[in-house]
Amino acid sequence: MSPPLPDVLPIQPFTRPVRGEVILPGSKSLTNRALLLAALCDQPVTLTGALFSEDTHLMVEALKALGFGVRTDAGAHTIEVSEQANGFKNDQPVDLFVGLAGTAARFLTALCAAAPRGIYRIDGIPQMRKRPMKGLIDALRSLGADIRCTGAEGFFPIEIHARGLRGGDVSIDASESSQMLSALLMVAPLAADDITITLTSKVRAPFVAMTILQMAQFGQPEPVGDGPRIGIKSSVPYGVSYGTYAIEADATAASYFIALPFVTGGTLDIPGYKLDGLQGDVRFGRLLEKEGLIGPLDLAASTQRITRGPACAGINANFNEFSDTFLTLAAIAPLLSGPTMITGVAHSRKQETDRVAGMVRELRKLGQDVHEHEDGDGLTITPRPPISGVEIETYGDHRFAMSFGILGCYDLHGDGRPWLSIKDPACCAKTFPHFFELLENLRQHSLSS
Q1: Distance between CA atoms of 245 and 386, rounded to whole angstroms?
Q2: Which domains are seen in the chain, by residue range?
Q3: pLDDT tens-digit map of 192-239
Q4: Nearest CA to 238 among 9, 40, 31?
């Protein structure tokens, strides 16, 4: 167990270039998808390399409440899902708590709506009640689901009176979160008939592609059709070869450590970071490579060696398809020599917090010249010498904590004095509980290298 973090954590700058390697946690997106897919198999499935964090814990506890057998081994990073035949056998209503976990919220809503029987009440913390659910709720209702919003229409809390899904044609607006489409895709094979999904809006393609590829790894045929229409066969059973499924290292978590050598200099090895894997957020590393902030990456390598690149000019990039990583770039933008323009992130205003507005506020605290785009879709950061002594507000959002944690590693004064602090650093428990411990270990290792 890591020692508890203080309410406000001063970040100790690196006084020497980073050296060593960082072992990333498993992907949150892949772990929670794999948990749902494993529950839909008819044989036990062991997930290896699984993430152990607040979000995955909520998913595990929900599956247990639904009657599935789930055994975890945090030390070995494995989760076994079994006793699938016992799922959805509860005679009494089941209460499921999803905290602020968007994946758990959307995936469990779809799973319970597709159940053959039972009453399921799903809720989260007050902030979760503001996160978009309407597109998924409307789509499931059109397939015969009885979903009752017991608060505001289209939001949590909800109560589901399960009776299965009938199949057929369904439209979905997943513009506010691709997780809604992913949830619908994963439960579509449980419907009584084939389902044809029509997308009524643009959706972030990499996360949908990741879901479809992961479904294929669990035995589902390739969807029929392309473009805005996706056809899913019903009654095709889920299964996985040899009863095991390996989770990739988290590409979003990798973004912080990909940026670290630019901030501190040095060389950092990242084992298991797959440029050709399922996760779209590997585009962040490719972007920094292209812009010269880091050295060349190796597509064939099983371990990526990250070095500081030759350039430090500003970047102009659309982050729509890998938006969880835009905060990493925005946080280190004060160290670049020119303006950085980030676009394509309007949907991130409805995630754990309004990430665009929050980033604007925190960067301005640091003395940066920040322009919030009038269309709400991004921001432009013109770097200024950072102001010392700033406490960064995280808004309960893990990605604020980790992104600005990397900026704080910069030795602003040249003597190792902390100049930036992170409020509520423990919010990293959502996806990366030991982030700051790992960062400090790297700093200590750099001193002895």
Answers
A1: 45
A2: 8-25+250-448 (3.65.10.10), 28-246 (3.65.10.10)
A3: 999 999 999 988 888 999 999 999 999 999 998 877 999 999 999 999
A4: 40
* Cα-based distances in Å from 349 to 345, 346, 377: 8, 6, 9
Residue 150 tokens read as: 């017991």
The residue annotated as part of the active site, out of 55, 250, 324, 424, is 324
Comparing CA positions, the residue from 221, 133, 157 lying closest to residue 185 is 221
Helical packing angle, 102-113 and 54-65, nearest 10°: 20
DSSP at 150? S
**324 among known catalytic residues:** yes
* Helices of type H across 20-129: 28-39, 54-65, 102-113
Q: In this predicted model, what pLDDT tens digit does every residue of 52-75 receive, in sequence order?
A: 999 999 999 999 999 999 999 999
φ and ψ at residue 287, rounded to 5 degrees: -65, -50
Contact (Cβ atoms closer than 8 angstroms) between residue 356 and residue 345 = yes
pTM over 0.90? The answer is: yes
Closest CA to 347 of 374, 373, 378: 378
What's the token pair of residue 447?
């001193």
Question: Which residue has tokens 């389902």?
Answer: 195
What 3-state DSSP class applies to 77?
A: coil
Residue from 438, 448, 404 nearest 422 by CA: 404
Q: What region, left, alpha or beta, does residue 272 occupy, with left being phi > 0 and alpha being psi -120 to 50 degrees?
A: left
